[in-house]
Amino acid sequence: MDLDDFIITAFCMIDDTMKQLFANIRLRQRGPAPALSDSETLTMEVVGEYLSLNQDKAIYDYFRRHYSHFFPAMAKIHRTTFVRQATNLWRVKEMVWQHLLEQVRYDPSLKLVDSFAVPVCQFARAYRCRRFRGEAGFGRDTVARQTFYGFRLHALVVWPGVIVSFGIASAQIHETALTAELVNGRAGTVLADRNYWSPKLNEELARQSLNLQAQFKKASTEPWPKRSAMISRFRYRIETVFGQLVDRYMIKRMWARDMWHLGNRLLRKALSHTMAFMLNQTQGNPPLQISKLVI
Q1: Between 119 and which of 89, 150, 234, 258 could a Cys-Cys bridge form, CB atoms 3.0 to 4.6 Å apart?
Q2: Rg (CA), the chain
Q3: pLDDT, tens digit, for every residue of 259-287?
Q4: Distance CA 30, CA 221 (A)
């Protein structure tokens, strides 16, 4: 499909979903209806994220300049109005995302868990950075092989590559701290790397009917090399998803100033990725090759 088709399809999916979810619910208890509908706002956010427009201003400017014929109200509203409306819809984004997940085809029995660094500023400015003071922390980015200041994004991905839950924690918090929360209410097998080797966590998840299979904590003393190799063969899929979040969705360059805006931007990235995955499935494309979705 071309970009116009993608925008129309995304709008129809979001609008139909919101009509189902909020058929008998008023999202606003008082005040006039916004000039720009909530479905239009979410559509621009989702498509904008797919187009690597990760900043609110970039999304606003792009659609106002190029797609005012699709969204005529964009010519009448100020950027701050658009940003405020988009951010206030964070709970709606989460509900729409969870509703779409129910329609995606995936294997719920095989799950992958991992985390990656999300810096909030350049390391050289970390000690005088005012963003997330008291919330962010210093941690080790194993990919870049350097210390960073910020958070770690912890995500649970089900086969063949759908993000079903995520959480954000200060960089110094260990990877295993959020695992039980991410997999809560689920069953099956969870694959993880060496950072998740924890007999205590294994026992905790076993009580939830979850089988955690993590690589041994030290490669040099690995007692089951074939088992670790098998886990690595499947774990590459979550690394593919993380690569898309970093490259296409520019998740390491959000530069939000508080947890409210940070959470909103993370939700719209997850929603956009899930929608692209779902549309690829319906069109018969490899679901994770989301770059092929729009030609």
Answers
A1: 150
A2: 20
A3: 999 999 999 999 999 999 999 999 988 99
A4: 64
